[in-house]
């Protein structure tokens, strides 16, 4: 009987151990990694050169050498649904290609999350939807071995209450990503227009987000000295004055957006590479194609903005990677040269 009881105890122990393993397996069925970081999260405060790669662009259109000219690359976009689920990624093959090229050149990788404002408003207003969204974003970023996530909600507002729910969403997303040593950035308004959109980004979000990609473009008519220029140097100065001066955004979190495209008086766009291809003088800030004049940031203004960012902010951002030219007239190259950065 002693031998039998001893054997039965061993069997019971084995059954108990198996049950524990089964329970543990069930707990990890969501595919998320263990949430016990060995060390606390530390933000990367180095100077950043950020660019976005839209899903509708062919990766073959960007020279491999260009990846050495940036520090962060976001694939655009991953779209949320109102219930917090995520729509299937567009062009996953392109996503895999550009992420591989970025990693091979030491570039930090991320996904930019964007979509219709109404979807964000609905999703962020629900605690359950926010929770599911955060879980899904973490799962996507870990499954794809990404360094971080960019939130491109255009825009939270005080007019519809979404300023408050944006803050709640950012807090939950920040806690989740930072716990797994992944960064969180956000694309934000240039802040040069007063109103509910500008006020929709509360200062309480500043400690939660690693860096802000300030979209200082699409501002036709703002600069009275250059009314058709959608992204003047003066607009960049005013944007930094507002976010860093008036609002107190920490300098290390501010990334100055620079467009790699131009606009005409009718607000139609053309990529910078088209101005190069049509033999325009790209040291200037305007070009003519088929009799239509476009205003953009040429190499001289891009260099000035890069130096402005070096002095007053902590990075520059380009929308978007494909828009830029692959030749020696590249705007991203011009910015690197002004900064004295080695990209060979």
UniProtKB/TrEMBL annotation:
UniProtKB keywords: Glycosidase, Hydrolase, Signal
Domain spans labelled GH18? 47-342
What Enzyme Commission number does this protein have?
A: 3.2.1.14
List the GO terms this entry assigns under cellular component, sorted alphabetically: extracellular region
GO aspect biological process, one term: carbohydrate metabolic process
Instruction: Output the superkingdom of the source species.
Output: Bacteria
Q: Where would one find the signal peptide in this protein? A: 1-24
Per UniProt, the enzyme's principal EC class comes to: hydrolase
Ribonucleoprotein among keywords: no
The protein's matches in SUPFAM superfamilies, at most eight in alphabetical order, are given as: (Trans)glycosidases
Q: Which GO terms describe its molecular function?
A: chitin binding; endochitinase activity
- Per the record, what are the reactions this protein catalyses? Random endo-hydrolysis of N-acetyl-beta-D-glucosaminide (1->4)-beta-linkages in chitin and chitodextrins
One Pfam match, given by its short name, reads Glyco_hydro_18
* Annotated InterPro entries: Chitinase_II/V-like_cat, GH, Glyco_hydro18_cat, Glyco_hydro_18_chit_AS, Glycosyl_Hydrlase_18
Gene3D superfamilies assigned:
(Trans)glycosidases - domain 2 (3.40.5.30), Glycosidases (3.20.20.80)
Family label: Belongs to the glycosyl hydrolase 18 family.
Name this polypeptide is given: chitinase
Instruction: Record the organism.
Output: Pedobacter petrophilus
Q: What is the lineage of its organism?
A: Bacteria, Pseudomonadati, Bacteroidota, Sphingobacteriia, Sphingobacteriales
């Amino acid at each position: 009987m002693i031998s039998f009881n001893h054997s039965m105890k061993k069997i019971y122990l084995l059954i108990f151990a198996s049950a524990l393993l089964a329970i543990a397996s069930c707990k990890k069925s969501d595919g998320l990694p263990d949430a016990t970081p060995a060390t606390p999260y530390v933000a990367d405060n180095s100077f950043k050169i950020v660019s976005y790669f839209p899903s509708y662009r062919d990766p073959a259109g960007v020279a491999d050498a260009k990846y050495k000219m940036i520090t962060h690359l976001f694939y655009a976009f991953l779209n949320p649904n109102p219930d917090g689920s995520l729509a299937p990624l567009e062009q996953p093959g392109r996503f895999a290609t550009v992420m591989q090229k970025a990693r091979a050149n030491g570039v930090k990788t991320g996904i930019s999350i964007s979509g219709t404002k109404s979807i964000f408003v609905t999703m962020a207003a629900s605690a359950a939807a926010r929770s599911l969204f955060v879980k899904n974003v973490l799962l996507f970023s870990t499954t794809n071995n990404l360094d971080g996530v960019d939130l491109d909600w255009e825009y939270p507002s005080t007019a519809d209450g979404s300023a408050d729910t944006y803050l709640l969403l950012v807090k939950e997303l920040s806690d989740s990503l930072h716990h797994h040593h992944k960064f969180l950035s956000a694309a934000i308004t240039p802040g040069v227009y007063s109103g509910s959109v500008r006020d929709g980004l509360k200062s309480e979000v500043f400690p939660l987000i690693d860096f802000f990609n300030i979209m200082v473009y699409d501002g036709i008519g703002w600069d009275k000295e250059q009314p058709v220029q959608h992204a003047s140097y003066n607009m960049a100065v005013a944007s930094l004055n507002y976010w860093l001066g008036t609002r107190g955004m920490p300098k290390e979190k501010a990334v100055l957006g620079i467009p790699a495209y131009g606009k005409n008086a009718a607000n139609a766009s053309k990529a910078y590479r088209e101005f190069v291809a049509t033999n325009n003088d790209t040291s200037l800030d305007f070009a003519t194609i088929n009799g239509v004049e476009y205003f953009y940031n040429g190499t001289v203004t891009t260099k000035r903005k890069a130096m402005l960012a070096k002095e007053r902010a902590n990075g520059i951002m380009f929308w978007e990677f494909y828009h830029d030219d692959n030749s020696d007239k590249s705007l991203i190259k011009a910015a690197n040269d002004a900064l004295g950065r080695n990209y060979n």
